[in-house]
Design brief:
Length: 198
């Protein structure tokens, strides 16, 4: 059996750390890259290495080139008095892509999970509570995924904010174009819970 050079093995192992990339896919990627020009390899390598210098917005936690991201710099969003709380940057980008939300965001960086040692301190919820008061937030939208941990986090968040703040949770249920016969019971349950007058 042929012994591959350590350089190839190391590259394959590094790529398998990406979500959805198994050993076979990583191997195909590396084999493809062996045909690249040196300048292309250096370009990709330096682009990946530069991720270590990635900054986070000091207000919302989104990726940024400066202290504040482009969303937090918008005056209209600052004065809107609306805050959308999400679990991670991918969730923020999904909501932003819809073009419907025009307020500020806050990325928790996870959800409460005592079994994994994630409590209010790890999510810096005291800072979030202070932010709601100092930014004069009137409305909070909890955009956390419908899981046991997400539900528990939403309940906890609701308990720490002033009662004067209007707190809502995004709706969950049947996707556009979805067929009821193919949906799981949890999705149908959430759809029934989130029904509205027609």
């Amino acid at each position: 059996m042929i012994q591959l050079p350590e350089v190839i093995k190391n590259a394959v192992e590094a790529l398998t750390r990406l979500p959805g990339v198994g050993e076979k896919t990583a191997f195909r990627m590396v084999m493809s890259m062996t045909n690249w020009k040196n300048s292309e390899l250096v370009s990709v390598g330096s682009a990946l290495a530069s991720l270590q210098h990635l900054k986070l917005c000091r207000e919302c936690g989104m990726f940024s080139d400066a202290d504040l991201c482009s969303i937090c710099l918008e005056e209209q969003r600052q004065s809107a008095g609306i805050l959308c709380i999400v679990e991670n940057a991918s969730d923020l980008m999904a909501i932003e892509k819809s073009g419907h939300f025009k307020g500020l965001y806050h990325i928790l960086g996870g959800v409460l999970n005592p079994l994994l040692g994630v409590g209010p301190d790890e999510l810096k919820l005291d800072e979030l509570k202070l932010k709601v008061v100092t930014k004069n937030i009137q409305e909070i939208i909890l955009a956390l995924n419908p899981s046991v941990e997400g539900d528990a986090t939403c309940s906890y968040l609701k308990s720490i904010f002033p009662q004067s703040v209007n707190i809502e949770r995004i709706g969950f249920g049947v996707p556009i174009g979805g067929s009821l016969e193919y949906l799981d019971p949890m999705t149908i349950t959430k759809a029934l819970e989130n029904k509205k007058r027609f």
